[in-house]
Specification:
Length: 159
Amino acid sequence: MTRISLRVNGREIAEDIDDRLTLADFLRDNLNLTGTHLGCEHGVCGACTVLVDDEPIRSCIALAASVEGKSVKTIEGFDEDPAMEVIRDCFSEAHGLQCGYCTPGMVLTVRDIIKRERCASPEQIRIELAGNLCRCTGYSGIVKATELARDRLKNSGGD
């Protein structure tokens, strides 16, 4: 067992955990943050994407102990985030979601793309999204949602 202390969605957490517990399982099972989805459990599909110290990571292949002392943000932690509000609205408007399984990881990745690369072309967006798999949408709506959100955030000067 290992004792970890970290901040999750702004809340200080300290717990004893099994050394082999993944971050995704810790978030889902220990903290009941089930917006972090498990798909492939090999770090390939992107459904489990969370932010650790503002960097997207695959939580299914990261050990919970590896985020000791860090800040983790899951999809549930963006209620007060103006950029995420715009992204969610654009996903809805552009039909960028269907079954919703990939959506939490997808919107976290889109937020990261927009924050880093305000002028991303559709081709760049597709390349950046390559690590997030969606079996339903064909990606057209997701790329359109990303472009809409990028343009709205750029024009508003918002983050």
